Amino acid sequence: MTLSPRFSITLAVFSVLFLATIVHILVVMGIPLNVQHSAYDNIATYGPDREFNLLPDVRPQQEALPDLDPAMKHATCRFQLADGPVLFDASIPTSFWSIGLFNSAGEAVYSLNNRTAGAERLSMLVLTPAQLSILRENPPENLEDLIVIETADISGFALLRAHVPHPSRANALDQALLSATCGTIG
Q1: Which residues cross the membrane (predicted)?
Q2: Does pLDDT of 140 surpass 90?
Q3: Which run of H or of E encompasses 148?
Q4: Which of 2, 7, 114, 172 has the fewest Cβ atoms within 10 angstroms?
């Protein structure tokens, strides 16, 4: 039994389209697994973990991280909560500062600014639920002064931003961001 030429061509076209669809789906689904540069990975190039590292000023097509505001100075701190809770402390002499906490996938976990903090000084503790239960048994003296953030994400980074009201203030803000701490309780 032979197939008609028209049926053979139709079958061949559908077979090719089916195969192309399968290949396309596999390629699209495989892209996230093969992307190697996340924000968490990118900021590692700017300095050591558990320390605020100043990011370069925002220039077109040269951003250290996507969507950074050119009117702000930025510093980042990578951390691993497996190494213990992280205490963030900073005094930024500007009318507006903010800090965002992100997990290693770059998803926002928490965000805070000087207006919502109700203070000009940033004092924030980030820890896991297990670390919080241990901390409750023997709390530090200044616990009531800290903003306590509990997260299940073990790896992450903080992005500290400070508004630059005038270019003459840029160096002072750089120094303030560099003197901000991202370390252990102690």
Answers
A1: 7-31
A2: no
A3: strand 147-150
A4: 2
* pTM over 0.85, yes/no: no
Q: What's the angle, vertex CA 133, arms to CA 127 and CA 139, rounded to 5? A: 85
At 18-71, the pLDDT tens digits run 999 999 998 888 776 666 678 888 888 899 999 999 999 888 877 788 888 989
Q: What is the pLDDT of residues 171-185, one digit of tens each?
A: 999 999 999 999 888
**76, 159 contact by CB (below 8 A):** yes
Residue 159 Cα distances to 14, 43, 82, 93, 102, angstroms: 51, 10, 20, 17, 8
| Cα dihedral 103→104→108→111 (10° resolution) | 60
Q: Where are the alpha helices (DSSP H) in the chain?
A: 5-34, 39-42, 114-117, 129-137, 170-179
CA-nearest of 127, 99, 94, 130 to 112 is 99
Rounded-to-integer distance, Cα 3 and Cα 7, Å: 7
Query: pLDDT value at position 34?
Result: 65
Q: In degrees to the nearest 10, what's the CA dihedral of 45, 79, 148, 69?
A: 10
CA distance to 39, 114, 160, per residue, from 98 (Å): 18, 6, 6
| Residue type present at position 26 | L
